[in-house]
Amino acid sequence: MALSSPGTGAGPGSGSDFGTHTGAGTNTSSGTTVGSGTTAGADTSTGADTTTGAATDTGAGPGSPVAPRPTRGLLPLLLLGNSAMYALYVGVAGMLLALQIEAIDPADKVANFGLVAGVSAIFATVFNPVAGALSDRSGRRNPWILAGGLLAVPVMLLLGSVHTVLLVTIAWCLGQAVMNVYQAAITSVVPDRVPVASRGKASAAVGLGLPIGSTLGALVGAAFSEDYRTGYLVFGAIVAVTSVVFTSLAREERMPPRPPLPVRQQVAAFGSALGDHDFRWAFIGRALLVLGYFAVSGFQLYILKDHTDLPAGLSAEEAVAVLMPVNSVAMVVSTVLGGWLSDRFDRRKLFVGASAALAAVALVVPALSSSWPAMLVFSVVNGLGFGCYMAVDTALVTMVLPAAEDAARDMGVLNVANAGPQIVAPFVASAVVSIGGGYTPLFIVAAVLSVLGALAVRPIRSVR
Predict the structure, then answer these.
(1) Gene3D superfamilies per the record (predicted)?
(2) Confidence of residue 322 (pLDDT cuts 50, 70, 90)
(3) CA proximity to 421, closest of 256, 309, 270, 298
(4) How far is CA 328 from CA 214, 215, 316, 383, in A?
(5) What average pLDDT does the segment 200-225 reach?
(6) Contact of 30 with 208, CB cutoff 8 Å
């Protein structure tokens, strides 16, 4: 999965986007900025009627041929749909997949997990815009959400039945395919059906799916750590049931089909956006921070097994179920608070740099101590730093976009800074652990990357 910035109004399938520490190359287009400075508690309870963003932007009224009927309760459904998606990504890629690979080949689990994570991340990053383009061509989202959700069950059954690293890789790539069909379509619901004035609320609903889904994924994964095959089916069932609920209650009308952007134009757009001085440095800073974050978070289960001195009676799987809610709560608090404070003081660079530096400090803690309290401190401080960073950095990026008329395109370019490092991170992490002989060098490398990410915002000139 790959991180992205929600609520930008970018067209469907415009890029891949996170999730947080989901491990083996999960691609989350719906974003991780939990609220981006909005008050999340109020937002998610909104059941207001919404119409399409397209209709609102063009001035089309409710009776317009291109405007679907208002949908009651769309925001809670978006919260439900994204929570289910993140639960599967975190529970499967962050826990069950790691346990399965360890059972197949304990001696080479780090290298094998890095291989599966990297290959599946490449597949997810490529397939996400393809899946988005397919739903664009059809002019509908619900059939794709339903199809992706229902197919999750047989694919998860297949994943749990294979017994070699090669077959695990193939099965998880198939899992990425069906989940990206689901994900690309549900991500497109916001620009399709939510008016621009309400997209902050929609972004909060989508973003809150991350901590809620992550916590659910960790708890379910820990519950089925001794029987990962059944765990796979449970996660598949969660997504399947959610897809049925979403498509049954969130009515839609066919939108005009949208032609895909030619590859040549996409490449030209990428080069044009990075030619801008401030945008280029914002891109570099995001890429460095994301690389450092996912290099560690993807191997969390193995870190707890092989690096951390856990209390007697606490398994690594149970430790994940403890750390995930702690991290999620810290992330929600810092996301909302950081966004609000950066608005109040009008200082984006200060908060982005400070939060990236805080993430670096968090990574130093487990490098210095392998104790369980050190991991708890790391989880809290890392959640505070990363949550604030993603909220405020997204706001900063929107202020350094090269051209307002190309905002959606350039936000899609930024998603490369989210997706690309997630492809590289598993390979980098497994190499560092193998060469360095443990996880302490990995924490240090990730901390250095976070510091460089903090420093990268300093050359930006147009934002304080």
Answers:
(1) MFS general substrate transporter like domains
(2) very high
(3) 298
(4) 7, 7, 18, 7
(5) 84
(6) no
Structure tokens given for 322: 């403890």
Among the residues of 139-227, which ranges form H helices?
A: 142-161, 165-187, 189-193, 199-223
Can you give the C-alpha Rg of the chain in angstroms? 20
User: Which stretch of DSSP H or E encloses residue 119?
Assistant: helix 109-138
Residue type, 51: T
Residue 178 near residue 148 (C-beta atoms within 8 A): yes
**What token pair was written down for 203?**
């972004």
| Of 316 and 27, the one with more pLDDT | 316
What six digits make up the tokens of 57? 């932007």
Give yes or no for residue 257 having a pLDDT over 80: no
* 271 within 8 A of 92, measured Cβ to Cβ: no
Taking residue 405's Cβ as centre, other Cβ atoms within 10 Å add up to: 9
Average pLDDT of the chain to the nearest whole number: 80
Reading the block at residue 401, the tokens are: 């976009």
Which pLDDT belongs to residue 161? 94
Q: What integer pLDDT is reported at residue 47 of this predicted model?
A: 36
CA dihedral 104, 108, 112, 114 (to 10 degrees): 140
| Domains along the chain with CATH numbers | 40-455 (1.20.1250.20)
Distance CA 202, CA 369 (A): 40
Mean pLDDT confidence for 174-182: 91
pLDDT per position as a tens digit, 31-59: 333 333 333 333 333 333 333 334 334 33
Q: Would you state the structure tokens that stand for residue 341, as one six-digit string?
A: 């404070």
- Which pair of tokens denotes residue 190? 């916001």
Q: Return the closest-CA partner of residue 52 out of 156, 226, 160, 197.
A: 197
User: Burial code of 284-306, b = ≥16 C-beta within 10 A, e = fewer?
Assistant: bbbbbbbbbbbbbbbbbbbbbbe
The Cα–Cα gap between 267 and 247 comes to: 35
E strand or H helix that includes residue 383: helix 372-399
Encoding tokens for residue 248?
Answer: 């049954």
Facing residues of 309 across strands? 371
CA atoms within 13 A on the CB side of 233: 7
- Dihedral in degrees, nearest 10, Cα atoms 354, 360, 361, 363: 150
Q: What are the beta bridge partners of residue 71?
A: 50
Q: What is the pLDDT of residue 256?
A: 67
Side-chain half-sphere CA neighbours of 93 within 13 A: 40
DSSP 92: I
Closest CA to 356 of 319, 316, 396, 318: 396
